[in-house]
Design goal:
Layout lengths: L2 H17 L4 H14 L2 H14 L4 H16 L19 H14 L1
Helix pairs in contact: 1-2, 2-3, 2-4, 3-4
Length: about 110
Amino acid sequence: MSRRSLDKVISYFNTAIRLTPKLAVPYINRGNVYVAKGDYELAIADYTKALEFDPKSAVAHNNPGLGLFQGRQGGGRSTGCREVPENRDGPSEESILGISTAESEAR
């Protein structure tokens, strides 16, 4: 996907965030697009913001590590991310269902 197309996708997520500012999913999705663009620091900021709204989101906990890894593998500069507090209650049911659905579709 071209950079211009990715910028267009980001604009859609910006609108979603403006309409539902306390929903984690648009931040996660915009973070994923930032990773695709190579903007790892912006991606990590979005994943961190998503955790404020859904601290049990397995995706939001997982994706900053992917952003950091890809940033280092691709030669990009990454400053790291803030430590996320340990979640003693485990992931939310929605996160588990989302992961289970994705895993079953991949098989």
